[in-house]
Amino acid sequence: MAGRLTPEREAELYEAVLDLLREVGYDALTMDAVATRTRSSKATLYRQWGNKPELVARALRHNKPVSLAEIDTGSLRGDFRELMSREDDCKLEKDSALMRGLMRAVHDNPDLHLALRELLIEPEITGLDAVLRRAVDRGEVRGDNPALSYVVHMLVGAFVARQLIEDRPVDRAFLGHYIDAVVLPALGDPC
What we know:
Elements: H1 7-24, H2 31-38, H3 42-49, H4 52-62, H5 76-85, H6 89-108, H7 110-137, H8 151-166, H9 172-186
């Protein structure tokens, strides 16, 4: 991305993109609408981000300023708790609704799928892998534990299943209980 925008202006643009996504969804989001909302030109948006999928993925990445790999409390349970302490229930609910909407759009838009994988999902998986690798190195988790390959699936499942099964948004209390009852025991930590 060209470096013409200040970090403040870039943050403002990303927030506008997320607001529009929440209001109209991915399919109805247009570069024209982003340009109008942010008082930018469409040419500037295309020059900076190339296309709508990349702009959306970068806005989502910017919305997650904390990388899992940066969290190192000295224990796996502590790392998960620290991650949760950096979220609040309102943001979790908004982000969860936003991601559910985007997951529907991914099925019809391979460019969005690719952008989300490259710019959002893969960095999160890399960060989670680093957290889990440290837990293995500390002896908290056996390196041959087959559940290590499925932690990301368990965590994503928590977000999807809560809304689907209970018709309730994911919140910090639910995630804390879920990690203690499902994720950590699967990794060999009986809590």
